[in-house]
Amino acid sequence: MRGIDRRDFLHRTLGSALALPTAAPLLSLAGCDTDSAAGTEGFASSVAYQRRTFDGAGPVREIEIEASEGTVEVAPGRSFKTWLYNGLYPGPEIRLTAGDVLRATVRNALPEGTTIHWHGVPVPNAMDGVPGLTQEPIATSESFVYEFPATPAGSYMYHSHVGLQIDRGLIAPLIIEEKQPHVDYDRDYTVVLDDFLPGAPEPLEGGGMMGGGMMGRRRGGMMAGQVPPYESMLVNGRLPEAPVEFAARRGERVRLRLLNPSGATTFHFAIAGHRLLVTHTDGRPVEPFAVDSLYVSMGERYDVVVEANNPGVWNVMAAVVEGDTPPARAVLRYADARGATPPLEAVPEGLSRGRVLELADLRGLGVPDRGQPDQTFDLVLSGGMMSSAWTINGQAYPDAEPLEIAEGQLVRFNMVNRSPMIHPMHLHGHFFRVADVLKETVLVPPHMGRVSFDFVADNPGRWFFHCHNIYHLEQGMAREVRYV
Ligand code: C2O
Ligand code: CU
Which of 279, 265, 179 has the alpha carbon at shortest distance from 229? Predict the structure, then answer.
């Protein structure tokens, strides 16, 4: 899908899915003391569990991560120099079991300061990796030890939280396995969707009205905003012409953990010849729901189970929603399938028709009961027109007031997007309830899209709340949420 069609499509699906009424989902404090059903780890039990067990529940898993310059190959003969974790892009997958304690010693061999943020995990505040809020950047040649309980289970990511370093390649998967998954599967693959910027990332300076070069793209008379000059899109660090292959046998159930740690790309994901059974969003379990495609924005994760019931060799594709870069591509290959890799033109039918996931389709497991908020914030997301700033209620971080809350409160954020671009809004340190699921990153659609969420203030500290488009974050779309 291209141009106006794709945009209308996005509108129709995302708009209706996410433009939630202001009479928003509720959540009760009482519900938060109740244990959720066995085998699931909902908001209530997991957050309480985290706090009860911080002094060490499971075995300590020690790892070492070095951030350094290096060279990676994104296709045979296509190497480029960038910044890497342990020489790898994406960085090394950390795989733990719920309840383990992760102790990660991070050494900085880069020419500038860095940090690691454990995206989605409700860690103690001091371990959150946000420069200026929870720690100073780790200086060149210095180390920092992060230690926190790996809970709750889920598909997460870790990445640098300094400047635009995410678009240097400082991204990686963090998987915390369930002790008892609520769905059966035979294979488990991590699918990292990313945008590929061969050079050093630069802030996007101009306003959206300037046009030209790496400036905004005009569609149907409306500005769609600025996108960085990405050269291509990648799955697990591979260009579409040299795709990674996921193997399956007929009759198997294949779990795919879709992660989007990209700098500025919302993906529309589908697999040719197969439906997707959505089982988790942002690591939290949901009642399985079948669709043909789904959107995954920056910072979001979806786990899906694919029933391998259509032997062959199939394209697994993630189209770009904002910008004109061709889709990322991997391949699903059945054992014994003779076929060659499909051409790039064999776009999955789910990208142009069929059922697209809407957030309202999902029912989370272990989601607490509803309640009245103790405090509500109305937050207007703006930018992309006349200036380079991206703002929340007119303020551009760091020149922005903290949102002051108090421990034990039920807090509601009502967001409205008065801009032409998607904003995936991410809250550190907490899961929130949006529609009937728990998440910590949620796509707020452009052109007056509205989304509300509720969370319980049960993890005191100085927490970041921001757009996960790193160019928007860098130009101010962030606030501190404070209760210390
Ligand atoms: Cu994925 Cu503030 O981060
Ligand atoms: Cu944004």
Answer: 265
